[in-house]
């Protein structure tokens, strides 16, 4: 379980996270299907773009699963 400042681990929060993650996966599968790209390549590119857009001071998840402040 990840604990971030100001974020409470509740059933509602976990449900929302699961819904957001599933919507993102659907979108990535759609992009991969339309472009002929591998799903993993779409996921990696999206993660890189999200990281670039993340403002300093916000938390990002590192490759090892830990959370760090950008």
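^ structure tokens above, recovered residues below v
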């Amino acid at each position: 379980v990840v604990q971030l400042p100001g974020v409470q681990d509740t059933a509602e929060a976990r449900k929302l996270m699961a819904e957001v993650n599933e919507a993102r996966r659907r979108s990535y599968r759609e992009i991969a299907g339309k472009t002929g790209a591998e799903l993993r390549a779409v996921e990696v590119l999206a993660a890189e773009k999200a990281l670039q857009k993340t403002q300093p001071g916000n938390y990002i998840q590192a490759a090892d699963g830990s959370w760090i402040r950008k």
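The longest strand covers residues 59-61.
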